[in-house]
């Protein structure tokens, strides 16, 4: 069997799994898996760009995805009445001031020689800078948060079409990735992992606490959609006559149509990204990246600037993650910082990349679909299994109830076992990279 | 008098919690750093090992409580601790046998091992959540205080007061005992010496007849025992929740790296550095300043650098600063 046939068969198999969900459960459920599978595939693609092309171990995926979600809010939500006058501009001033202080500190650090004087110059600059920054920011943030806190209490967004937030999310995440890459890429591989893990937590902490930005844990629940609402479809004459023409239930049909529209948008983005990354991988640039990944010392000896190339690829990967994050927030129509958990948004993506095959874009896509399918479906399977086990137990016993309640956590065990088995018996993944 | 009051406030809200939290982090970091020194990878499952050991301890504690056995004024969990440690050690040894040993033999690079530990992390996390659930649990019993705030006020006659909780006292005693014992073990015993030799230069140690499997086994046992200790003490002091334990991974790694990854002494120092920076930066100094400064110099706000929610940012910032300016950590661990 040639490699190409096997790859096609793998994709057909995963497709069949999803179709079987449509047949046995509902097409709405199957399409929900497809949509999240598409998003997972894009996230896995982003991680794969960093890990598969360059061997950069980024476990801060969650942070970049969350930044993408923030972009969706900042672009698409209508601006809050009076927030910019109340304190928005002052917040901007504070942020610019903070950036200037950090730039000044970096400059001082570069200019002065190593030693005591550098510390003497830097410490007061940073401490005083921080105090002044807080003095500018705090009243402004409080003023913005005081505006209609039950509904708004943040500066709102720009009120632009939400589709625009996808590239913006990519840019935002790329910017953050550049800053982080600049500081952390010099570190050895597992220190980079620990550092990125921390950065992701910080991004979430900022989203949770800076209420003026995205309402913090009060969440934003009304991100506008790029596609029609189910309820509007159900009331439109044209749609109703179409549905009765094919003899379908309007409620289910409207859900399916909306999900299909999303799937179309996501698929377009995924195809563009795959095309771009395949083209990049097969270009001289891609060959250089592979050379660096396989032997950094040799590549450096050939005159390649390893650190710069690493930074480049890190930023690119972060941008893809940011795009996926904005798309995710668009699909869900909300930004809930509490929902960003490392197991789901970092480590699960890693399982996808490893299972799919690191270094292979098609593998990342396959892994994204397969692992998301399992993540969703293991829960009902676990429930079924537990029900089977507990069938003989006395009704209403506490132990039985406990087992039934905790069946949902079985999927974590399943994911771990899949990861361990893959690494042991097929470390190159389902579709190995070159 | 004002100076004394300020000192007491500071001790009650910064010093004591800092030392306790630092000791708990230090125990966690010791386990992570030992694994790093000998097996040469960052074990991402360490936070979940803590959760697993704590869970085992709580389960045994429930059995003891059901049988009506208590530990006087000390928490019953301490009585259950040895059993919890045994369970955690057995589980970790089983994972080594089933999972890690294969990779050790095939000499893979450390990133593959990190990835494998992610798999183990998923499994342990799932098991803990399945068995004990995801809720927050308080499991400290026995006397709550060694001395209460009211008693302290009575003794000293100061306006401000200081209370010492039993769990804090227990933590302090345990960390002193553990560090002393570990120091003795690594410096004086044959096994400890062979472990250090293995950590310094694997090939040389093998040539000198050190049995690698035995060293690895002892490291896993020590790491699981220390993780369980850290987890139980943290849980007694605050509360047990699987997700919180998973998140402790970051300050623990930070502590280990700050001290010098692979250096036990550094892990202890790192634990205290991280704990104190977290508490220092997020504590509101308004009350302390209230005693120290003249009335018109009083700060209007809380005199707090960052809100407590940014704790995670603090441990991370310390980590990055140390990595950038002294990549080997305070005590010169394995190079970065």
From TrEMBL, chain A:
Q: Where in the cell is it found?
A: Cell membrane
Q: Name one GO molecular function term.
A: branched-chain amino acid transmembrane transporter activity
> What superkingdom does the record give?
Bacteria
Q: Which InterPro entries match?
A: ABC_transp_permease (IPR001851), LivM-like (IPR043428)
Any one Pfam family here would be BPD_transp_2
Keyword NAD listed: no
User: Where does the sequence pass through the membrane?
Assistant: 32-49, 56-77, 89-107, 119-137, 157-179, 191-207, 260-281, 311-329, 349-375, 408-425
Could you list this entry's UniProt keywords, alphabetically sorted: Cell membrane, Membrane, Transmembrane, Transmembrane helix
Q: Which GO terms describe its cellular component?
A: plasma membrane
Q: What is this protein called?
A: Branched-chain amino acid ABC transporter permease
Q: What is the lineage of its organism?
A: Bacteria, Pseudomonadati, Pseudomonadota, Alphaproteobacteria, Hyphomicrobiales
Q: What membrane topology is annotated for this entry?
A: Multi-pass membrane protein
Automatic annotation (TrEMBL), chain B:
Please name the PANTHER family in this protein's record: BRANCHED-CHAIN AMINO ACID TRANSPORT SYSTEM PERMEASE PROTEIN LIVH, HIGH-AFFINITY BRANCHED-CHAIN AMINO ACID TRANSPORT SYSTEM PERMEASE PROTEIN LIVH
Q: Which UniProt keywords apply?
A: Amino-acid transport, Cell inner membrane, Cell membrane, Membrane, Transmembrane, Transmembrane helix, Transport
> Any transmembrane segments, and where?
6-39, 51-71, 77-99, 111-132, 162-186, 215-236, 305-325
Where is this chain primarily localised?
A: membrane
Q: Where in the cell is it found?
A: Cell membrane
Q: Which GO terms describe its biological process?
A: D-alanine transmembrane transport; L-alanine transport; L-isoleucine import across plasma membrane
Extent of the signal sequence: none
Protein name, UniProt field: Branched-chain amino acid ABC transporter permease
- GO molecular-function term, one example from the UniProt record: L-valine transmembrane transporter activity
The membrane topology term of the UniProt record is: Multi-pass membrane protein
Q: Which InterPro entries match?
A: ABC_transp_permease, BCAA_transport_permease
Organism, scientific name: Pseudaminobacter soli
Note the CDD domains from the entry. TM_PBP1_LivH_like
> Which Pfam family, any one, appears in the UniProt record?
BPD_transp_2
Highest rank taxon of the organism: Bacteria
The family classification in the record reads: Belongs to the binding-protein-dependent transport system permease family. LivHM subfamily.
One GO CC annotation: plasma membrane
